[in-house]
Amino acid sequence: METQSWAEQEFAYADLGDQRRKKRLIQLAKQRGAQPNASISQSCEDSASTKAAYRFYENSAISSQAILSSHIKTTQTRMGQESIVLAVQDTTLLDYSSHPATQGLGTLHTKNQHGLIMHTTLAVTPSRVPLGVIHHQIWRRPEEEFGKKHQRKKRPIEEKESQKWLSSLEATSKLSKEIPQTHIVSVGDREAD
User: Fold this and answer.
1) For the whole model, what pTM was predicted?
2) CA-CA-CA-CA torsion sign (13, 18, 22, 23)
3) pLDDT (tens digit, 0 to 9) for every residue of the chain, 193 residues total?
């Protein structure tokens, strides 16, 4: 009997509305995982496989949340096997400034720097073994909001970027209730204060 690959285990819970999409997701994960630094066309076997990959990525019926939810569920299973897990959260700026034709981006540090902001919470054992992502948020800063940082004290917390810390904490708290045998410690850097 053949054992499941890591991709089949990781995406076992993926509900993409069609088993063929799930099969494609697993195949893409295996291909991309085998060559993580390669481009899509380099990691695919042939032009038909590359075309299928782009069709999958461009399919509006497939959401990143549907894919991530399977990973989170699998991560939760791994977390349940640990006595202590660190839920480490941090923010990353995805800078696409060198891709001027890309649409849907916001400003980053300067008005000429464009991209997205991603806040991720990663489950890790105290001995630094990564277990997986348990929460993430991606957003863009509207260009018209650039330079209005001084007005942040007038806005409710729900409208501020600092809400990211609380949203992550809420997701972590929810998980801790689902796996009470595991002590989960939420970790943030000094910006989380």
Assistant:
1) 0.82
2) positive
3) 456 789 999 999 999 999 999 999 999 999 999 999 999 999 988 899 999 999 999 999 999 889 999 999 999 999 999 999 999 999 999 999 999 899 899 999 888 899 999 999 999 999 999 999 999 999 998 877 766 666 666 777 777 778 898 899 999 999 999 999 999 999 988 877 6
